[in-house]
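pipeline: protein-struct stage 2 | run 1193 | Probable RNA 2'-phosphotransferase
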Amino acid sequence: MISDKQLTHISKFLSLVLRHQPETIDIQLNQNGWTDVNELIEKANDYGIKFDREILNHIVATNTKKRFSFNDTFDKIRASQGHSIEIELGYINQKPPEILFHGTGKKSVQSILESGLEKRGRQHVHLSSDIETAIKVGQRHGEPIVFKVLAEEMYSDNFQFYISDNGVWLTDNVPTKYLKQNDE
């Protein structure tokens, strides 16, 4: 079997080509972000990232963040969210919970307090429904800081929210008036 280190390497590579740079291995994503599974495997292997359908199935099934999904017939794959390229994921506007959370590193707090949460190079701002996930996300950026997002209030003010296949809440931006530092 393949090592955990190799699985992580392949998963990161899949994130690169399915979220940001499909041209790296000369694959095409359709308008909804889907690409053919067999072509993905073939082009990745040609590029030097060696895996087969069994390994791909394992990565999709066991990825703790559920970053990837297959279509209903399992012949196409896409990233669940986090794209920096224009993709229409087909998610429907949904009413969020009263409070959502956003984890970040301490170094980003001042900027967030000044301009709110911005999607920057991504298609959406990513929010979680639980504080534990937000802390984990924040830890990737240094000392974690968690913001509470007044999501239900935003929704009442006509902001749109979507929930991705892996349970991440998405919105276009979060103005500062809807943010509270978690210790407030």
